[in-house]
Amino acid sequence: MSLLKIVLSLDLGGNRRLVVHENNEVFVKDLATKKCAFFTPLRWKRFIGLIADIEEHAQLSLVGKTTHYMQQIGGTWYVSVDSKFLTVDIRQWYEDLRSGTSLKPTRVGIALTYFNWEKLKKAVVEVDDEIPAMLAVSPCWHESQIDQMFCDECSPFHKVKDVANVRAAEAAEILTIDTDFNTSDHAVDFTQRGKKLRMNPLLSTVE
Length: 207
Ligand SMILES: [Zn+2]
Known about the structure:
Elements: E1 6-11, E2 16-21, E3 26-30, E4 36-39, H1 41-49, H2 51-62, E5 68-74, E6 77-82, E7 87-95, E8 103-113, H3 114-130, H4 132-135, H5 145-150, H6 160-178, H7 190-199
């Protein structure tokens, strides 16, 4: 059990509570079953950004429409809404290597009833009001695709092969920029880049 001080504790209905620790980590837990979802501030922020989408799918499944929604909130954590279950599920998933690339749920996480979900939406506003530091957290942002692929938050299941492919593509781009000795400015527009691509002897066979 964590020894960090609890700075906010909100009722989500039933045995469920939302708890914020002094380091701004958020827990959504069931006091009876001990099931729990855990958010770093970054993941909490990403989760908040998905609320409108989650709500839309929850509403669809409530009126009997078939829906299957799943979004990553950071690392191996995902939020999902499936009309089969009538819950908002916040859970860690793993990549099942035997079945190729498909993700499978782990037992770590919590399935919220729609009653819990309604309360959680209100709790989100309260967290923002009570924990100002949370407002300053911004979601992950990456300058390049390769940075994103190396980020364990954004690409927890990245493959060495995929990274190598992007690396090759980026290396080709840098090569074309470096052949232009007249400019030290790397912020080239795309028309210029096209021209350089044609000038590069290594890439001339492409055309
Ligand atoms: Zn990232």
